[in-house]
Write a structure and sequence with these properties.
This protein folds into two domains: 2-244, Thiamin diphosphate (ThDP)-binding fold, Pyr/PP domains (Rossmann fold); 253-381, Rossmann fold (3-Layer(aba) Sandwich), CATH 3.40.50. The chain has twelve helices and 15 strands. It has helices spanning 8-19, 34-44, 58-70, 81-96, 121-124, 139-153, 183-189, 212-244, 271-284, 302-309, 329-337, 361-373, and strands at 2-7, 23-26, 51-54, 76-79, 102-107, 132-135, 162-167, 175-180, 253-256, 263-266, 289-294, 296-298, 314-319, 346-351, 379-381. The strands form four sheets. It has a six-stranded mixed sheet, sandwiched between helices. The chain has a five-stranded mixed sheet with strand order 4-5-7-6-12. A two-stranded antiparallel ribbon has the order 1-8. Strand 10 (263-266), helix 9 (271-284) and strand 11 form a beta-alpha-beta unit. It is globular, with a radius of gyration of 20 Å.
Length: 385
């Protein structure tokens, strides 16, 4: 284990190298570019034996990833924003073919207008593509989650692709202290890739026509695999903790001063660090606030969420994305989770930080205090001009 202060994108590249993928098709897009640039440095220096494929678009990158993964080798790629949008039709193909590709997404707003700063609209748009989605808060978590992602994706009970989402610039370009494990440690945690699917010369078909009599059955298998992944994510997190002495809640949700909290913040990514500051401040004033960080948006940890937050009086949900004409996607999922419960907290919806708009300590404190006094659900955009 080596401790260093370095950029989160560099840390992700270190994690990828430690996981030993054999093929990395990639196309640069801000703010993801530092990840493949650093990986390329490793390859050029002879420190990383893999085949990097430099393609003409993100659509080509994910298409090439299908080809390499289908031949039975560990495969990785990365993208952001419009790049992820360009991949969209192929994302469905990857999951439908049950290929365990891992991809980092440096979250960035979607155009128009052109915006290179952070929100979660890009990955939230991909929520129904049958990719597992993990959202990280820190450089350390970005490294750890990237390593865990390969273990989760390649599990026999899952066999689904995983995207690990880190906030663009707000995290991807930030320097933080990080513990980087040794190759020997990662090899102990992540075994050599044993593909469940491999075009190795034996007669088989990948991606055939799905006639109506069978198509729904294939989709049901994906749905079951996604639900199965909850237990595998928990196990991957627990196994990681045993070896590296770091864990993130149960792998699905991460609590912070949650046990006696009457008002609970729910969100994903770097804003959770800001929430911790406000929670500590209000706790000193005797206000019982806490946080339940949502690490996995897919699979959505519905029962775990009900158990963790069911006794709270109010839930304060911050979304860095919006379903236009409705509310935030995270809010909608949480509201749905509690819909059939006899006892439910008041659930408040706040849209925050779109396109890199600052999410401040004051925004959190105001939201917490509004939730403390309001007896009805609040729906609000945290935006002032």
């Amino acid at each position: 284990m080596v401790k260093k202060v370095t950029e989160a994108s560099q840390v992700v590249a270190e994690a990828v190298k430690l996981c030993r993928p054999a093929v990395i098709p990639v196309y640069p897009i801000t703010p993801q570019t530092h990840i493949p640039e650093r990986i390329s440095d490793f390859v050029d220096a002879g420190n990383f034996k893999c085949e990097m494929i430099y393609v003409e678009s993100e659509h080509s990158a994910i298409s090439a990833a299908i080809g390499s993964s289908a031949t039975g080798v560990r495969t990785y790629t990365a993208t952001a924003s419009q790049g992820l949008a360009l991949m969209h039709e192929i994302l469905h193909v990857v999951s439908g073919m049950r290929l365990p590709i891992v991809m980092n997404v440096a979250n960035r707003a979607l155009s128009a207008p052109i915006n290179i700063w952070n929100d979660h609209q890009d990955s939230m748009n991909a929520r129904d593509t049958s990719w597992i989605q993990i959202y990280v808060e820190s450089a350390q978590e970005a490294l750890d989650a990237t390593i865990q992602a390969f273990k989760i994706a390649e599990d026999k009970k899952v066999q689904l692709p995983v995207m690990v989402c880190l906030d663009g610039f707000t995290l991807s370009h930030v320097y933080e202290p990080v513990d980087i494990p040794s190759q020997k440690e990662v090899d102990k945690y992540l075994p050599k890739f044993k593909p469940q699917i491999s075009l190795d010369g034996k007669p088989q078909t990948l991606g055939p026509i799905g006639y109506p009599a069978d198509f729904m059955g294939f989709k049901l298998q994906q749905h079951v695999a996604m639900n199965n992944s909850k237990a595998i994510i928990k196990k991957a997190n627990n196994d990681f903790n045993k070896l590296f002495k770091r864990s993130y809640g149960d792998g699905l949700l991460e609590p912070y001063k949650l046990k006696d909290a009457e008002i609970v913040f729910l969100g994903s990514g770097t804003i959770c660090g800001t929430a911790r500051e406000v929670i500590d401040k209000l706790r000193k004033k005797g206000i019982k606030v806490g946080m339940c960080k949502v690490r996995t948006f897919r699979p959505f940890p519905e029962q775990e969420l009900i158990k963790a937050c069911g006794n709270a009086k109010s839930l304060v949900v911050f979304d860095r994305a919006v379903s236009f004409g409705h509310k935030g996607p995270l809010f909608s999922e949480i509201q749905s989770a509690f819909a059939d419960q006899k006892k439910s907290p008041i659930i408040h919806s706040f849209i925050a930080g779109l396109g890199g708009y600052d999410v401040t300590l004051d925004h959190f404190e105001t939201a917490f205090m509004d939730a403390k006094t309001s007896k009805t659900p609040i729906t609000k955009w945290l935006y002032e001009r």
